[in-house]
Design goal:
This protein is α/β, with parallel strands linked by helices. Helix content is 37%, strand content 14%. It has a single domain, classed as 3-Layer(aba) Sandwich (Rossmann fold). The chain contains eight helices and eight strands; from the N terminus they run H-E-E-E-H-E-H-E-H-E-H-E-H-E-H-H. Strands 5-4-1-6-7-8 form a six-stranded parallel β-sheet. Strands 2-3 form a two-stranded antiparallel ribbon. Strand 7, helix 6 and strand 8 form a beta-alpha-beta unit. Helix 2 packs parallel to helix 7.
C-alpha cells in the first residue's frame, strides 16, 4: 500500500483509463435470482455520477467483468461506458488489447478489483485500488483501499481521487450540477 501522499497524487494524476470490475466493486457482490431465474443486481447511483464525471474530464472508463448479465449490460449502457467487456475470462489480455487500442501504458491505468481474479491485472497497472471489503490478498496488493465497501460508492471515491489529483472537486462537480448531466453519455 502506498503511504506517501505525493506519490499517490502523482500516480492518480497520470491515469488516463479507469477500469472497474463489477461484482464486489460496482455491486456489493451479492447474487440475487428471481423465481424465474433472472439475475438482479444493485448498483449505486453515486458510482454512476463518478464514472460519468471521469469521462467528462477525458478519462477513459471501462468495465471488465468475468460475468455477463442483462442488468450489467443495462447499467453500462445507461452510463454510456463504451469499453464494456462482460464475460471476460482473461482480464489482463482484454486490458492489454484495450491499452493498445487507446495507446496508453500500464502506468496510466487504474484498476479497481476485489478478488483474486483481479490480482493479475492489479499487479501490473499504475494504480491498483480495492474496496474496503475486498479479499485480504487483494487489499495487500492494492495501492489504495477505499473507505467504501463494494457497491457502496467505490467508483465515486475512485473518481474523486483521480479528479482531485487534477483540480478541486468543487470545479469537477460543477459539471454534475448541470441539468443535462443526467442524460450525458460517456465521451470516450
Amino acid at each position: 500500500m502506498v503511504d506517501d501522499s505525493l506519490s499517490l497524487k502523482n500516480k492518480a494524476n497520470a491515469i488516463k483509463l479507469v477500469v472497474f470490475d463489477v461484482d464486489g466493486v460496482l455491486t456489493d457482490g451479492t447474487l440475487v435470482y428471481s423465481a424465474d431465474g433472472e439475475q438482479v443486481k444493485h448498483f449505486n447511483v453515486k458510482d454512476g455520477v463518478g464514472i460519468k464525471l471521469l469521462s467528462e474530464f477525458a478519462i477513459h472508463t471501462a468495465i471488465i467483468s468475468a460475468k455477463a448479465s442483462a442488468p450489467l449490460t443495462r447499467r453500462a449502457s445507461d452510463l454510456g461506458v463504451k469499453h464494456f467487456f462482460p464475460g471476460t475470462k482473461d482480464k489482463w489480455a482484454c486490458l492489454s488489447e484495450l491499452m493498445s487500442h487507446l495507446d496508453i501504458t500500464p502506468e496510466q491505468v487504474c484498476y479497481v478489483g476485489d478478488d483474486v481474479i483481479d490480482l493479475k491485472v492489479m499487479m501490473r497497472v499504475g494504480l491498483a485500488i480495492a474496496p474496503s471489503d475486498a479479499f485480504w490478498l487483494v487489499q495487500d496488493n492494492a495501492h489504495i483501499i477505499t473507505q467504501a465497501a463494494g457497491g457502496r460508492g467505490v467508483a465515486r471515491e475512485v473518481a474523486d481521487l483521480i479528479l482531485g489529483s487534477r483540480m478541486s472537486l468543487k470545479e469537477a462537480y460543477i459539471k454534475a450540477m448541470l441539468p443535462e448531466f443526467e442524460t450525458l453519455k460517456s465521451k470516450d
